[in-house]
Amino acid sequence: xxxxxxxxxxxxxxxxxxxxxxxxxxxxxxxxxxxxxxxxxxxxxxxxxxxxxxxxxxxxxxxxxxxxxxxxxxxxxxxxxxxxxxxxxxxxxxxxxxxxxxxxxxxxxxxxxxxxxxxxxxxxxxxxxxxxxxxxxxxxxxxxxxxxxxxxxxxxxxxxxxxxxxxxxxxxxxxxxxxxxxxxxxxxxxxxxxxxxxxxxxxxxxxxxxxxxxxxxxxxxxxxxxxxxxxxxxxxxxxxxxxxxxxxxxxxxxxxxxxxxxxxxxxxxxxxxxxxxxxxxxxxxxxxxxxxxxxxxxxxxxxxxxxxxxxxxxxxxxxxxxxxxxxxxxxxxxxxxx
Length: 338
What we know:
Radius of gyration: 30 Å
Subcellular location: Bacterial flagellum basal body; Cell membrane
CATH topology of the largest domain: Annexin V, domain 1
Strand content: under 5%
Helix content: 55-70%
Organism: Thermodesulforhabdus norvegica
Keywords: Bacterial flagellum, Cell membrane, Cell projection, Chemotaxis, Cilium, Flagellar rotation, Flagellum, Membrane
CATH class of the largest domain: Mainly Alpha
InterPro entries: Flg_Motor_Flig, Flg_Motor_Flig_C, FliG_a-hlx, FliG_M, FliG_N
Low-confidence stretches: 1-8, 67-77, 331-338
Number of helices: 20
GO molecular function: cytoskeletal motor activity
Largest sheet: none
Order of helices and strands: HHHHHHHHHHHHHHHHHHHH
Distance between the termini: 73 Å
């Protein structure tokens, strides 16, 4: 298929590649001798991707270099063929082979790469008007974590439709995937710049969740003084160690399988009696007895060490939530010795 681009749509590297294609092998090889390997790779990749170029586009580009385009026809030689003939005379056969292999590797485009780098909410908003089959095809290429995030931001009816189609997806021809990828990329370009979602209440809560408790408390207190309603929204989205008391017993048992016993002992140092009992009742009688004994003989521990142990357990908790093995219910959320 002919590739037609206006001059203003060509990048500097694309224009340089077009000029080299127009110069002829002998002259172009002399030019390449004065370039660095990385520069040759960049030019070579663009040359390899060029096919039939409109004469007017070529003329516009050559005018920038104060040259006159003489041929009345479009360039019909493919970049791949031209490059294979050109590079050996410019940099030698061995080096040319290495450069060409590198170019071929660069051309192996990862499907939906640009979409993978988008914020999940932005991507969901972009995809929600697409056909469910297209959305399903994109989502299966995102990786499980990103895919689950995008799915959660899609409208509920579309969520069901997409999952249904994913279950029936089989082998998809690579040219179909490429066609969908290119079409979506063109849509993105036509929409202009899409802004990434960097903040928001949820993001603030996630950040505070990963801070030590004293820092989080100080920030929330200051936020409450400035905007009590906003502070409450953030607090409700946070999940702190004491909120484990509201996790169903099955979830607690899943968590106890994953956490380090030493971390558990230290983390429970400042825990409420309710949380301790919650933990004890989800252990075997022998394991609960040993944990109680460890807590009884535990000496003074720095508060920072307790908070670090609690954070490590919360990290495991959040991972289990992502895996669907636990359901979280958020609540309100010089070293001291405790």
